[in-house]
Structure formats: structure tokens, C-alpha cells
Amino acid sequence: MLDGIASKNRIILNSSSYDLSKAQNYGKKDVSPYYYWEESGDEYNLVIHDVDGLVIESRDTNPYRCNIQADPGCSHVIRFEDCNDIELEGLTLSHEDKSSIFSSIVTLKSCTKADITKCRLYGGSVVGIVIDECERTNIDFCYIKNCTQNALS
Is the pTM value of this prediction over 0.85? Predict the structure, then answer.
């Protein structure tokens, strides 16, 4: 999955569970011009940045069959920064946050045109989706549960 992170690219995931902490380059620095691992205590958060036209979607129409998950100590599953025209579709994104820090499942920061469609987001996060300084963000037909404060912030 991570090898496909780039501008003008479509990543189609099979029905499976993708544990980000088991990625070959988990926690390593300078692995890609489009993503990095941000240290969060003993864990690392995936930060995708500066991509234009990235789609991550499930091959299966049932979002319960394609799960992207992060370790419990992470403050989010995926964070997008300074991205344009990104889409997440038909995915489950999850983690059980055990930390005391502010956490989210998906964070969008300084992004333009982001679409999250037919996704299932759950875990012990404070917020399901954080939208910070973004334009043209659409969240359609998503199921967000088990967030301790809000679905959206």
C-alpha cells in the first residue's frame, strides 16, 4: 500500500487488514518524498504530504473487508498535509487509542478537495475526522463510531 503513495495515483486495496505498524519501513526516516513517519511516544504516525490526485480505495464494495489500522499509541491512523484532490473510498480505518493525547482517525491539514466516501471509521479516538485549514472537503455515507468527543472537528 505505501509504495503506491504518490501524486496522480490510484491505490486499490484487496479485502484484507493493513496494519501500518507492520510496514517494512515503519518508523524509518526519509523513505518517500510523499510520506513520513511521525514519532508519537513509542509508536509512529503515517503522514502523507504534498500529493495531488491520490485515491485510496477498496476493491470490495463492503468497507468492513478492507481495514487500515494503526497501533494503539498512535495519535491518528492517517494524516494528510498540504494535499490536493485526495479520495478515500470504501475503507475501514481504525485504532484503539490508549494514549492520553488528542487523537483522531483521519486528519486533514491544509488540504484542498478531499473526499471521504463510504468509509467506516472507529476506535477510541477523541475525534473521528479532524479538518484543519482545508477547502472543499466532502464526507459522504461514512459510519463513524466510538469516538469519545466528536465525529468531526
Answer: yes
Per DSSP, 77 falls in state: S
- For the sheet with 120-123, list strands across it: 17-19, 67-69, 92-95, 120-123, 143-145
Strand order in the sheet with 127-132: 35-40, 43-49, 78-81, 104-109, 127-132, 150-152
- Number of residues in the chain: 153
Q: Please tell me the distance from the alpha carbon of residue 11 to that of residue 130, in angstroms, as a whole number.
A: 23
The dihedral region occupied by 10, where left means phi > 0, alpha psi between -120 and 50, and beta the remainder, is beta
pLDDT 10s digits, 71-126: 766 778 899 999 999 999 999 998 765 554 567 889 999 999 999 999 999 876 77
Of 148, 125, 42, 118, give the one whose Cα is nearest residue 79: 125
